Amino acid sequence: MQRTSSRLTSSQKIFFVELAGTFVVVLLATGSVVIDAKVGGALGLPFVAFAPFAGVAAMVYAFGKISMAHFNPAVTIGFFVSGHIKKTQLSVYLGAEIIGALLASLSVLAFIGSEANLGANAPNYSFPLAVIFGVEVLVTGFLMAVIFAAVYTKGLRGWSGIAIGGMVGLDIFFFSFISGASMNPARSLAPALLSGAVSDLWLYWSATFAGSAIVALLCRKKFQS
Description:
The chain crosses the membrane at residues 14-35, 41-63, 92-113, 125-152, 159-181, 201-219. The protein has 225 residues and is mostly helical. It has a single domain (10-223), classed as Up-down Bundle (Glycerol uptake facilitator protein). It has 10 helices and no strands. The protein is globular and about 45 Å long.
């Protein structure tokens, strides 16, 4: 009798590391917001920006060589537009990212708290809607550009995790007061669904994909023509 191999396929490996990576990223990104709300804002924006920076950086170093470390549906669509992943891989990446994000928000609810709508993103409507949408496109574009820079320089000489995580942290620090600086539809979806604060999801499921797709089209034209 032939023994069935117990080794995971490439798609299975991608699924599990994308799920795990997204879980960590969303747990830290949203959990930091909830923790700060629980202490009345005493930790402040530096803490809220640093937590996802650390999570993204760690997960890029841990899993980048297996899945290219998306952890973000907008990044996955960007890589699809640029030709780095195939259409058949989309369901693996997107399914893992959404499940990982939902598990993260469930963990926040169970172990940290439900303050601040479980850390859901919220735009500042004192700014014009066009500005809010444009800023969310911009910050996602910045992130996608840094990710492509890491890809085309073979990991920025070992600094890829710091650079990508740093871009996430900087975007949050400088732009979250306008658009919420999600950059990640899964990060926005999970806490919004579980808290019921879904009115702003349209923004994070449109502007983020637009930002990553625009940069991906530019990179595809430049590097793959």
